[in-house]
Amino acid sequence: MSLLYRCLACVLVGAVAGMSHAADSLPRVPSTEPADALVTFHLQDGFRLELLAAEPLVTDPVAMVYDENGRAYVVEMNDYPYTDPSLDKAWEDQQSAAIGRVRVLEDDNGDGVFDRSTVFAEGLSWPTGIACWKGGVFVTATPDIWYFKDTDGDRVADVREQVFTGFRKFNVQAVINNLQWGLDGKLYAAGSSNGGSIVRTGGDGQPIAIGRNDFRFDPETGAFEVLSGGARFGNTFDDWGNRFICNIRNPVQHIVLDDHYLKLNPLVAAATTIHDSADAGDAVPVFRISPPEPWREVNAARLAAENRAGTPRSEMHAVGFVTSTAGATVYRGGAYPEEYAGNVFVGEVAGNLVLRYRLEPEGATFRAVRTDDDEEFLASKDNWFRPVNFINAPDGTLHMLDMYRETIEHPWSMPDDIKAQLDLTSGRDRGRIYRLVPPVYRDGYTAPSPPRFGEATTAELVATLENPNSWWRETAQRLLRERQNDDAVALLRDLVLHSEMPVARVHALYALDSLAGLTDGDIVAALRDASPRVREHAIRFAEPRVPMMATSAELRERLSELIRDDDARVRQQAILTLAAIHDPNSARDARALMRHDAADRWLRLSARIAMDSQAAGVVLAQQLRQPRRLEEQGASELVRELLEQLLAAGPQADLAPIIQAILALPQTSPFDPGEPRLALLLMLSERLPDIAPLIDVASQLGDEARQQIVDLHHAAERIAPDPSAPIDRRMLSIRWLGCRPLEESGQLLANLVSSQEPQEVQRAAIDALAKSSDPTVAGILLKRHPQLSPA
């Protein structure tokens, strides 16, 4: 750290310390000119940065794509966070002027550095994503998705078509973003949380409510689909089509399965289909090397002093924690050392740094592991460095987009007096793009020349599907789809059969499908491929075809065999597809999967989708008849989930064998918190309209079963009011009493709402009373209200 830098940091921190949490004279942090920026960075493992473009060639870059001829299209979000502060109304639709742009950047001399910049399209509102298609580009720009194309070669779009509209222009940090090609030839985007009612421009279909979800659309047909998702800024695939997103404090999230599978079974409830692969929350540490910004020091000190409930811990510290991850990108090039393949790079824009995670398979999902201890893969001393996004470039490296702003923060989250001291548009005229260069290329790898791929022959495009760099494979697959040349079919089928690269075989299958050349035989062969990833995708291809295929019986049997595949994701896809095609044996296969994968929450969920209530009841009874299995990992969760599913079926659910199996479980002293028997009976009682059905079914099972329920009633009446009983047993007793009719337990519960009782007991009694719909409960609680503590 230079003497000048140390002095500046001391001055800033000292100035802030003297302000006593006031914001009447916040010092501003100076910017660094492009020529001096490289010395502000610290990188691991001998990596270095090369500056590819800076202002005035580019400003506010947030998304970027290379076309087949090496031209870079860059999205500039110049209207972040607003164009006029007076128009920024919190919790209202925003009226910011549309000043965003798309630029074309070109490298004229082939040295990999951009020399020329042309404004391709302008007048865009909150633009955040871009993808090439048929010589033009799709652009997400809330409230719209546009298609732009230059037809006369001047690098300026003369075709400007609105494709979709209706995305809500509400929160500037919750906009649609990051268009990415899927293996299936559809464009995927992060939908974030603004929602909207989406219509295809010029179409006559019904509006589609997107809510807090992601989406995809077919560029040919315009078909639009809502997907699982709904995080903030980031959307990326690995080589096998697994999709990852990121949220503010959730650096790496995996979409484990799409919601359309959940809709197959209305009895199955799931809070989410998204898995936090990386550690998430408000206390995930980061190791920045830039000084704290003065306004953050003031704001954090205030929040810490107030210590309000619900305030994220990370906001009560000016530095040290993840607060604003963005642009999660899986590295899929061919230039970095082997250990970097498939790593996820994530920008932490508030911390002026880049996180790196290694993805490790974990059952049906992945765990993302931080690769660096006590320091980050990349960090800058410059507070203006804002790494918002990355792309896998044609040269096999990652290119990093630096929005380069003095402040990146949501205006609604800042106190007015602090916001008045800042210019949230400062840096709108700046921006940088870097190449992340490895110390040495792997295996003597030589960076390719800038691509001139537009005139490639069909044979060259097919051969490129075996390129180790994902940009080349994906571009070749896209061009094959655009050209629709039947000459490619035989070449692609040969690749499916003989390529030594599993990822090339997957690309070839999807390219064949886009040319209507994929046959039943191709799918059958792929289901027996040596690679589990090829088998997984083959199952997806089979899903819409099985009911119509001549080999349907053979295929259904093969899918059943794959329930026992060695690979967890193959097993998951097999059971989901069996459920989707309404295979009559899917419940049988789901039970087989349960026996093998009860410890995996995602495989349990997938298996339950394939089960009706009868099958769920059978599996649940089997689990309960083997008490030792209840001690296995995931077993208690499985029992709870199956019971929920069974109860969701309503009155027609056959509870007798379940209650019989529960009552047969070992029992200890009444209302012992560690007793699974009690936990299950409580769950049953709380989900039923009242305790009567439980007593009725127990009575049908015999006098002994009925007496067990009656004994629990008596024990609850004895333990709940007993001040000498342990608190946890008293609270379980109160929960049980809350399941009984008010005339039986109401007075006892009302007596526990007393200042003489511990707060935990009072609150449990109030919760129990509140379960009743009897209107006299209101009077009971209001009578005691003056005696109650604030809690």
- Give the low-pLDDT segments: 1-20
Biggest sheet descriptor: 6 strands, antiparallel
Helical segment tally? 25
Instruction: Report the portion of residues in β strands.
Output: 15-25%
Structural class based on helices, strands and sheet pairing: alpha+beta
Average pLDDT score: 91
Radius of gyration: 30 Å
**Intertermini distance:** 51 Å
What assembly state would you assign to the polypeptide chains in this entry? single chain
DSSP E strands, number: 28
Shape: globular
Q: Give the helix proportion (percent range).
A: 25-40%
Task: Describe the structure concisely.
The protein is an alpha+beta fold. Helices cover 33% and strands 19% of the residues.
Q: Explain this structure to me?
A:
33% of the residues lie in helices and 19% in strands. Strands 1, 21, 22, 23, 24 and 25 form a six-stranded antiparallel sheet that branches. A six-stranded antiparallel sheet has the order 7-8-9-10-13-14, with no helix packed on it. α10 (520-527) runs antiparallel to α11 (532-542). The protein is built from 25 helices and 28 strands. The model is unreliable at 1-20 (pLDDT under 50). By secondary structure, the protein is of the alpha+beta class.
List keywords for this structure.
33% helix; six-stranded antiparallel β-sheet; 791 residues
Fold blueprint:
Elements: H1 3-17, H2 34-37, E1 41-43, E2 48-54, E3 61-66, E4 72-76, E5 100-106, E6 116-124, E7 127-133, E8 136-141, E9 144-149, E10 159-167, E11 177-181, E12 187-190, E13 196-200, E14 208-209, E15 214-217, E16 224-227, E17 236-237, E18 243-245, E19 253-255, H3 259-262, E20 274-276, H4 294-306, E21 325-330, E22 344-348, E23 353-362, E24 365-370, E25 378-380, E26 387-392, E27 398-402, H5 416-419, E28 432-437, H6 458-464, H7 470-483, H8 488-498, H9 502-514, H10 520-527, H11 532-542, H12 552-562, H13 568-580, H14 586-597, H15 601-609, H16 613-624, H17 635-648, H18 656-663, H19 676-687, H20 692-700, H21 703-719, H22 727-737, H23 742-752, H24 759-770, H25 776-784
Antiparallel strand pairs: 1-25, 2-28, 3-4, 4-5, 5-6, 7-8, 8-9, 9-10, 10-13, 11-12, 12-15, 13-14, 15-16, 17-18, 18-19, 19-20, 21-22, 22-23, 23-24, 23-25, 26-27, 27-28
